[in-house]
Amino acid sequence: MAPGMIERVRDALERAYGVPVARWNPPDRPRDTLDPKRRQHASGKVLAWLLAAAPPGGKVLGLTDQDLFIPILTYVFGEAQLGGRVAVASTARLREDLALFGERRFAERVVKEAIHEIGHAYGLVHCHVPRCVMSRAAGVRDVDEKSVELCPRCRRRLTEPGRSHHALE
């Protein structure tokens, strides 16, 4: 992934959650996540690897350009441990119509999905406010319709007792 994209995601996460974000570049990558029949990577296995490999401390977001899936869906933009430590977001499906919309739209999509997945790690569930970054996205057009912001209700939920605001890696 381009360094400029990583920095953009880092800055957006810091703004969205008000915590410092550090870059962690693991020396290796997860193994045995590829399903050869689907030619996709199992996001649950990526989460397990992140949990085992990540440095101790805060929340961890893995960014990948590999296509992800869970068994009951054709693909996912990402997955997270709800209220847990790790999340993963994929850029693979976010490149749809890149020739039409350009790199700026792609970058916005990546930022939205990163904020969305870390929101799940902070315990936020899918929101029914259509423009909230925590709203459900069945396709890339749904991602485009979202804002990069949490709605007031989701923002309030972050401050409820029991929600941990650890740094991100």
Explain this structure.
With 169 residues, the protein is α/β, with parallel strands linked by helices. It contains five helices and six strands, in the order αββαββββααα. 34% of the residues are buried.
Shape: globular
**What is the CA-based Rg, rounded?**
15 Å
Helix content: 25-40%
Structural class, from helix and strand content? alpha/beta
Order of helices and strands: HEEHEEEEHHH
- DSSP summary: helix tally: 5
- State the end-to-end distance: 16 Å
- Tell me about the largest β-sheet: 3 strands, mixed
List key phrases describing it:
169 residues; alpha/beta; three-stranded mixed beta sheet; 5 helices; 12% strand
Brief summary:
The protein is α/β, with parallel strands linked by helices and 169 residues long.
Which SSEs are present, and which pair or pack?
Elements: H1 3-17, E1 34-35, E2 40-42, H2 43-53, E3 60-64, E4 68-69, E5 78-80, E6 86-90, H3 98-121, H4 140-145, H5 152-158
Parallel strand pairs: 2-4, 3-6
Antiparallel strand pairs: 1-2, 5-6
Helix pairs in contact: 1-3
